[in-house]
Amino acid sequence: VLLAIGRDACTRNIGLQTIGVKINEKNGKVPVNDEEQTNVPYVYAIGDILEGKLELTPVAIQAGRLLAQRLYGGSSRKCDYINVPTTVFTPLEYGSCGYPEEKAIDVYGKQNLEVYHTLFWPLEWTVPGRDNNTCYAKIICNKQDNNRVIGLHVLGPNAGEVTQGFAAAIKCGLTKELLDETIGIHPTCAEVFTTMDITKSSGQDITQKGC
């Protein structure tokens, strides 16, 4: 890592203390409820300054749009901060949507979850002889809710493109059964989500032997 430049929440010198808006003194972030409302009922906050929320521009845009619709359009829709497709654009991309496994365990309990995972590699890596089983895919399912997918993770080429498509399915209530019933496009990386059958709890080998 050459540079790891974070974002500072510049909230200490804009007069929030004058009207009584509370901030986290450690990082300057603003705590809000699920409607982006601060401790002062008529003051709302959106975007990167929110405590515990994602620092992503599309999230802020969506939250602001929904807030305006609630305040002035009679809507009741709130921003979903959980099922947000996210990608880290490293040379081998990482994409995710929903809960990370650790957070899912905290929220639902380990006994209520089933985690499916596998190693894989793109077919086009075969010709240049790149390492097999370098990529990884995982889904986290809630056993108490028809094995609904509450977390999806993928490490591989074009992970952002893959994650964006599955994010819509997760918003629609994607389940493991629906994934199993989906015909995969062969040979693609995303196809791996339609063929997963090894659970993490089984301890079975997840390396792949062929395409």
From TrEMBL:
Alphabetical UniProt keywords: Disulfide bond, FAD, Flavoprotein, NADP, Oxidoreductase, Redox-active center
* Domain FAD/NAD(P)-binding: from-to ranges: 1-64
Pyridine nucleotide-disulphide oxidoreductase dimerisation domain mapped to chain residues: 84-196
Q: Which SUPFAM superfamilies match?
A: FAD/NAD(P)-binding domain, FAD/NAD-linked reductases, dimerisation (C-terminal) domain
The entry's cellular-component GO terms read:
cytosol; mitochondrion
Q: Name one Pfam family in it.
A: Pyr_redox_2
GO biological process entries: cell redox homeostasis; cellular response to oxidative stress; glutathione metabolic process
- Necessary cofactors: FAD
User: Which Gene Ontology terms cover its molecular function?
Assistant: flavin adenine dinucleotide binding; glutathione-disulfide reductase (NADPH) activity
PANTHER family in UniProt:
GLUTATHIONE REDUCTASE, THIOREDOXIN-DISULFIDE REDUCTASE
**Sequence similarity:** Belongs to the class-I pyridine nucleotide-disulfide oxidoreductase family.
Q: What is this protein called?
A: TRXR3 reductase
What organism, scientifically named, is this protein from? Erithacus rubecula (European robin)
Gene name, Swiss-Prot/TrEMBL = Txnrd3
